[in-house]
Amino acid sequence: MAEQFKEQGGVATMDPPRMMRWLTSRLMTKISSPRAVAARHRKAEQARLKTGAPHRVDYFHQVEEGYSALTAQLLHRLVERYDIALHCHLVRGQEGKNAPEPELLARLARCDSALIAPGYGLDFPADVKEPTAELIAAANEILAAQSQEDFPQVALTVSDALWRADLATMSELADRLGRASPEAAEAALEAGTQKRRELKHYSGAMFYYGGEWYWGVDRLYHLETRLAALGADRQPGSQMLAQRPTADMKGARDDGQYTLELYASLRSPYTAVIFDQVVSFAETAGVTLNLRPVLPMVMRGVPATREKGMYIFMDAAREARAAKVPYGNFYDPIGDPVRRCYALYPWAVSEGKGVELCSSFLRHAFALGVNTNTDRGLRRVIEAAGLDWSAAQAHRSDKRWEMTLEANRQTMYASGLWGVPSFRLLGPTGEPLLSTWGQDRLWLVAQTLRDELAKREL
Question: What is the model's pTM?
Answer without folding.
Answer: 0.94
